[in-house]
Write a structure and sequence with these properties.
The chain is 43% helix and 18% strand. By secondary structure, it is of the alpha+beta class. The protein has two domains: 186 residues, Regulatory protein AraC (Jelly Rolls, Sandwich), CATH 2.60.120; 107 residues, Arc Repressor Mutant, subunit A, CATH 1.10.10. The strands form two sheets. It has a six-stranded mixed sheet with strand order 9-1-10-3-6-11. A five-stranded mixed sheet has the order 5-4-7-2-8, with no helix packed on it. The longest helix has 23 residues. The two termini are 38 Å apart.
């Protein structure tokens, strides 16, 4: 039996988290990095010194030692020694493709800063509803009155793990990175107030969370609003009203969008026939599935597959 909050676990499972890509940098001022990972959450942890996060048309954000900053949508940004730094930003992303963990350096002779930076790997399409519901920047500060224990332990673990090459290092880093990201997501979900208009508030609502968990666990089931309402222990009208108010769309519309994202993943990454994919996402008729897919993606499944299938 699923616990109500397990709907978040199922949403994360659907995203197919594939670990994180890291790089470790050691700088002395002046220095500057540029990073953009569209659709993929990227992050920075300051392990020594301080840095400034700079985004277009946004106020600078100070990141101090022990802080974690996550940009859920991977928006383009610069991270540098100070807002007015004269250093020319260098693209940080290519350094994340390197297999070794030798620190990358920018040495200007000034104050020292050490960073652990990276980005997550997951299914961008499946993650889209979650990513769009999150703020553009999530800043977890260790210098607050009660810093999160998971952050302090996680940073210590990362520092220890990148200090020397060891067996299974990448596997361990992947899992630690996943935990840090998920802890940050969980903390944000817990902080979302009721009536905020953010659909993540549904994950705190026992009735809605149960219904979401059912849909994500069994997308091929022929769900009806009365059946979902029964699982939510609400009347049909009360369930439909609460779902629409909190998530911004009716239950079956949400379900259809979720099914179409699942179908798009299968079309892109598997050789399964359109009829088999239709069956997997709850459609008895290939024609009905094709119509629903075309409404969502603008093209028939077979045509969309030709343009988007992974090699």
């Amino acid at each position: 039996m699923l616990r109500p909050m397990d709907s978040l676990s199922l949403i994360l499972d659907d995203m197919h988290f594939g670990g994180v890509v890291f790089t470790h940098t050691e700088m002395s001022a002046p220095w500057a990095w540029h990073l953009a990972t569209p659709g993929l959450a990227c992050f920075h942890v300051v392990t020594q010194g301080q840095a400034w996060l700079m985004r277009e048309r946004e106020a600078p954000v100070l990141i101090e030692a022990g802080d974690l900053v996550i940009l859920p949508g991977g928006m383009a940004h610069t991270i540098k020694d100070k807002p007015q730094s004269g250093a020319e930003p260098i693209d940080l992303l290519p350094y994340m493709d390197q297999s070794d963990l030798t620190p990358v350096q920018q040495q200007g002779g000034g104050s020292v800063c050490h960073l652990i930076s990276g980005h997550a790997r997951f299914d961008v399409d499946m993650a889209a509803p979650l990513i769009t519901a999150l703020p553009s920047v999530m800043h977890v500060q260790s210098g607050s009155s009660v810093p999160p224990l998971w952050l302090a332990i996680g940073i210590q673990f990362l520092e220890q793990e990148i200090a020397a090459v060891r067996p299974a290092q990448q596997a361990i880093l992947n899992r630690v990175g996943d935990i840090l990201l998920i802890e940050c997501l969980r903390g944000y979900v817990e902080s979302v107030p009721e009536g905020s208009g953010n659909w993540l508030a549904a994950l705190k609502d026992k009735a809605l969370s149960t219904a979401l968990a059912r849909m994500h666990q069994q997308p091929d089931h022929n769900w009806t609003v009365p059946e979902l309402a029964q699982h939510a222990c609400l009347s049909r009208s009360a369930f439909a009203d609460r779902f629409g108010h909190t998530l911004g769309e009716p239950p079956l519309t949400y379900l259809t969008r979720h099914r179409m994202r699942l179908a798009a993943r299968q079309l892109r990454s598997t050789p399964l026939t359109v009829s088999k994919i239709a069956e997997q996402v709850g459609y008895a008729s290939e024609a009905a599935f094709s119509q629903a897919f075309k409404r969502e993606y603008g093209e028939a499944p077979s045509i969309w597959r030709q343009a988007n299938q992974l090699s």
